[in-house]
UniProtKB/TrEMBL annotation:
Name recorded for this polypeptide: Pyruvate kinase
Family membership noted in the UniProt record: Belongs to the pyruvate kinase family.
The reaction(s) this protein catalyses: pyruvate + ATP = phosphoenolpyruvate + ADP + H(+)
InterPro entries: Pyr_Knase (IPR001697), Pyrv/PenolPyrv_kinase-like_dom (IPR015813), Pyrv_kinase-like_dom_sf (IPR040442), Pyrv_Knase-like_insert_dom_sf (IPR011037), Pyrv_Knase_AS (IPR018209), Pyrv_Knase_brl (IPR015793), Pyrv_Knase_C (IPR015795), Pyrv_Knase_C_sf (IPR036918)
Amino acid sequence: MGENGFRSTRRTKIVATIGPATCSEEMLETLATSGMNVARLNMCHGTHDWHTAVINRIRKLNKLKGFSVAIMLDTEGSEVHTSELEQPLKAEVGEEFVLTIRDPKTVEGSAIGVSYDAFVDDVQVGDLVVVDGGMVSLEVKQKMGPDVKVEVVDPGIVLSRANLTFRRNGHLVRARNSMLPVLSSKDWLDIDFAIRQNVDFIAVSFVKSADVIKNLKSYLNSRADKVIEVIAKVESHDSVPNIEEIVEASDAVMVARGDLGAQIPLEDVPSVQKEVVVRCRQAGKAVIVASHLLQSMIEYPTPTRAEVADIADVVRQRADALMLSGESAAGAYPEKAIGVLRAVATRIEEWCRQEKHGQIVLPQLTDRLDGRVSEELCASAAQMANNLNARAIFVYTRRGYMANFLSRCRPDCPIFAFTDKQDVRQRLNLRWGVMPFRLDFGADPEENVDRTFALLKRRDLVQKGDLVVVVSDIRPPNEDVVRSVQIRHVP
Ligand SMILES: Nc1ncnc2c1ncn2[C@@H]1O[C@H](COP(=O)(O)OP(=O)(O)OP(=O)(O)O)[C@@H](O)[C@H]1O
Ligand SMILES: CC(=O)C(=O)O
Ligand SMILES: [K+]
Ligand SMILES: [Mg+2]
């Protein structure tokens, strides 16, 4: 059996966007078996019924096949985008068509709807309308009431609900969107849907500052039965100066390079990516690098060498996760694309361990003694595991904190995390290096450890005689938390 997410010891996690190419039961299982750790549902597309069906299929797979694929719902956000198209529209140089705030069906000729009513007021003749960060560029020729006539200057394909940005004299025009809320009324309906569906993560598009994250987190705290982690997407021009507070407020961050590259100069994207990855790791927050990792594989079965180098760079930066968008949602080779991520990640991780690459100074996270003890314990356990060349770290954790602290240290060996809750297990599946398992804890800690040794031996993840580091912070009922680190040999 190949890598299947829970047997593998790949450290960098894989998020895959689910779309028409991958929404069937069969394809979802193929992706899970190939290593998908988190399934992303983009609320820019599909109905609630469509998303419900996908979620149910993933839940069924987790239950019947023992996967722990987590579910991420990604909000649409209220940036300006095109309407739903019956089919992708091929735009050739010099061709003219109409962008409209009316129903495009009521317009004669070739028309595309635009989601933002003030579009026609804001736009000026000569402006450049950039579709999906440069897939197509259109020049504004004429304003005609609710319609705007445009001419194609850079050809390409316009997809449904493509994102639109505007440039005037070579500069991004920003005034227009600043009045739009980060979370629209539709986004709030989608968030309520996410709560009803008990998803694991909500990713917020076009975050500008920490405020929206704090607001959403308090909303979720008051409504949701279980923890739903909030992922801030760094893709808005306005988010860049506020990265520190955004990281602080969020549970995880996504570098959404697709839209980010349309909002800031392309050449600035790599340094913003690096900054976000490092800050997240220092702050103990998960970080996902997304978009265009394997763009060419939407159409072709092999990646470009430059794409492989880009993936290698993300892995070397020790981000928690790599994310596929169109490659898995609508591409011709979703399984092969995951295979490339897996192979490159595994190889580069090995290289990082050999070269002792990617070590950074980790600041203290909290002043509270309780938290300090956990942090220090995990840092020492990770250090010990490296120095002793341990086969694995075992961690017993109810809420996942200790597993998260261990992951932040990016130890050389895998972290096998045992929790008694499936939702904690799923959330841990986004964390670098953590292989999460569900286990009903018995009263006797020693017996728990023995059971997990037996479990992982059966799966060939450890062998008799292996040296392992065992970390525990299980709180017995009505007792003080007992935290320990032990060095053991697998019996
Ligand atoms: N649920 C879906 N139904 C139909 N098509 C989808 C769906 N999800 C994704 N796609 C297709 O896959 C392409 C890429 O997917 P993705 O959702 O990652 O877009 P993105 O532009 O990267 O994300 P965002 O819209 O958040 O910026 C989309 O343009 C769309 O054509
Ligand atoms: C993933 C996403 O939203 C982007 O790259 O724009
Ligand atoms: K989105
Ligand atoms: Mg985006």
